[in-house]
Design brief:
InterPro entries: Actin-crosslinking, Endo-beta-glucanase, Fascin-like_dom, GH81_C, GH81_N
Low-confidence stretches: 1-25, 75-94
Structural class: alpha+beta
Number of helices: 18
Domain Fascin-like: 704-807
Largest sheet: 14 strands, mixed
Protein name: glucan endo-1,3-beta-D-glucosidase
Number of strands: 38
Organism: Fusarium phyllophilum
Mean pLDDT: 89
Oligomer: single chain
Distance between the termini: 93 Å
Family: Belongs to the glycosyl hydrolase 81 family.
Length: 821
Amino acid sequence: MKDLLPILLLVSLSLAGTIKPANRASLGPIGTSSPNILVGGTVQNDAPPLSSFFKDLKGPQVSLQWMVGFICCASREGTAAGPFPYESSLDGYVPTQLDWRASFSEHGGGFDGHKATAFDTQTVTVRYFQGNSSMTAHLVPGSPYMTFQYKSATPLLTTLNGGIESLNGKALSGGNTVSDRGTKFTVIDTKGTTYLIYSDRSIKLTAKAENNNQGTLSAGGKFTGILRLVMLRDPNHQALLDAHSTVYPVSVSQCYSISGDSGTVTFKWQTKGTGDLLMLTWPHHREVLQSPHSPGPSSLNYLTLKGWMYPTLGNTWRLTYKLSAITWNAPRDVDPSCKESVVNGLKYEVDQLDPSKAPAPNEFYYWGGTLAAKSRLALIADHVGSKDLIEPVIKYLKASFDGWFSATNKALPAYETTWGGVISKEGATNVWVDYGNGYFNDHHFHYGYFLHIAAVIAKYDPSWLAQHREYVTFFARDIINPSSDDPFFPITRCLDWFAGHSWASGIANGAGSRDQESVGEAVNGYYGAMLWATVALDQEHANFARLLVAMEQHAARVYWHLYPSAGKDDPTNPYPEAEFRDLITVGNVMDWQTGAWLFWGAEKVQIAAIQILPVTPVNEVMYDAEWVNNVFSYTMPELTSASYADSWKSVIYAAYSNANPQEAAAWSANLSDWGSGNTYMNELYFISTRPNQNGQPICAASGKYIVSAANGGQLSASSNSSNDADIFSSVYVPNAGTLQLAKNNQYVTADQSGAYSLSAARAIADTWERFIIRQKIGESQGVYSIKAASNGKYVRVVGDGTLVNDGAVENDATGFRLIKA
């Protein structure tokens, strides 16, 4: 006989479910048309959901949340979650631990002997059956109890993390059995953990101590009724658990409402039994839960990876989020001190866009990040009044984007029929294509960029919108569908409504543990969808996307941002360990572990930046002052080192500007690379539109004379007279400039090694001939540092007076004044 249902009471794989056919939201579907016009046609993933699990149910269009382990492919084992009471630790690693397994003696262990009988946006009901005997498990995230409904079956509960020491105070020893009859049982295992078992009618249970590591509880015969199992952490918790053991949740419905800049999600659990429903809240719930009826935290609590869960009573929750009013651009104009630089930089970057060289869309992720950054140029041009620069950007975007409509394109969007979603056709059977897009990994990351680009094109080209509205909308339906009335897509594919944030994991690797590294890109997924809904759909669905943005940003602040100042016992602090909070930023939130690390990088700037990017106007809400100040200080050793990429530094400076725009502008002015998902212009625009509390200009204006050797070569600081000084002209390039010696028309060059003196010896200006010249921090107005783009090192005057680019930090740089000739 095979036991069936692992119960995780100390550690769980908590995700959260969705979908059919139970409860519909108050908002109708975005659309119901078939995605048969996608150029990739239809395709089947090679890891389809298990049809036996959905026998007799409509669907499946299933979101990839906590129940996916039941549903997917070869894993064939579902892990159900109780109240998720497991602890976080400094290293962020917590191995899963199974405490009990529930089944019934009649079951033969066959996999086909279980199926879902109902599921919705959070819960799943699973029935295990053999002949006329069955056990139904009501699996509801947030319930402190595990609830099992038996029908003509003999309950069998097996301990998995220690043997049984006693049943109702009757001690066991190896191989012995003790029995008791009643409606409530107290079980203590050999690890000293106490569990309570409630029955809705009298039942006889026999405890057997198999050994010190395992024991069993079995009924004396077939039973029809309810058993509930809960862990008792503290004897003082028993009164509350006893009082509410007679009512249990079986499903949940949810609806959404928007009023101005306020959005409310309502959860309503359907229950059986009598009394007030007892549920548990996480920190993010407690920040937004309206008028809760909550007993004191000391009456019941469990420490989990998301902090302490505390009790609340009632079967209806109303969670109200503050919505941002930001859409296309920043809510403030460009600071006057930055306006000229913004206009010049905008023109320069737009001039570089050649539609004939626009990239072919051969994958979603990198293409999307790059093109979305370019699309912001049109919006910035609109904001600053450079209307003539909008059309060149739109032509460039269309030249690239239109590849998605071509059957000859390398990456073909196709409709995957077994899970219900848009994927890269090539990735349907190859998990390595586009980060597992074909296995539904990262869809909100990928399609947020996609929809942002499409929205910008549509905003300025109504005819393009009219032609492609339905096609592009399939991508929006893939990630923000609000309704079970859409027959082709699940409700909010990535969002876990109870956890309060999205998961990036799809069904790769047997639909293993849920995780999300880049919460910034999760926000961007819903932001891109909001922009598309604003221009192409309707206000109701745009507001729904605003709500999703607000939820994800709220979760970012609660679970990804770490605050050393938070109190250990603060009910909204998910991480009581001070050492963990000192790490400032969580890199990866998973369903079974959380830590300040990434799958692909270990640098502090990487861990922080991936939670910040992409830099868009809507994210000023997420860049709160305390956190960005902490990030800036924590990453300072890497920000001041040339060994770390400017692309990561750029987004940290941008976020930092939300609290300190002047200082951020000075640091940002030293950058020479912004990566593929950001641009000089986007960086400067964001910094120049920040809240400016002190009212000072954000972009501040702004010895020996420099002479060259007789042959126009090596430069040195060696003249005491301006009459002997050489004259140089400068030409603007983004965030930098070139220096051309007037007497020989040669450009100043800086060797990449930093081992040689600067010289005016190049006929053509390339990377080695670019310099970042900025007001030197800490010096008087008009004193500049010069940084060579060739190696990111600062120019300094060495002992013999020559200029060498080998300064590691700005403090090493010599200060220079620029005097008009």
